[in-house]
Fold this sequence. Notes:
- The protein is built from four helices and four strands.
- The chain has helices at residues 27-40, 60-75, 90-100, 108-144; strands at residues 12-13, 18-19, 50-51, 54-55.
Amino acid sequence: xxxxxxxxxxxxxxxxxxxxxxxxxxxxxxxxxxxxxxxxxxxxxxxxxxxxxxxxxxxxxxxxxxxxxxxxxxxxxxxxxxxxxxxxxxxxxxxxxxxxxxxxxxxxxxxxxxxxxxxxxxxxxxxxxxxxxxxxxxxxxxxxxx
Length: 146
């Protein structure tokens, strides 16, 4: 539905800075916000946590992922670089796949609990991969720039 966006009254989008229903004031900005929101998360209220009767701007799984990203960025300073951190994504993959196949129904709590370690795993894996690649390229870069 190009140019239209679903309206959920009272929801604050993008970290509470821009109201989700700004179409009356800034229609183009509202369309861009909706596209960003759809790219980042499906934003289904039935799969979101609620605060004071209103759904979070992202679903429970994305809430867990984003919290995990923040935790992973902090934990990276104390944990060893290891590509096996990527395995923390497996619980999310199993939960999402089994739900997608219709084998069972997931809950918001389980979505959050599988999203959180996955977020940590994505950050730690990414940082570990960058660290490993830089270590491997260090002699080449050192020889090239001398």
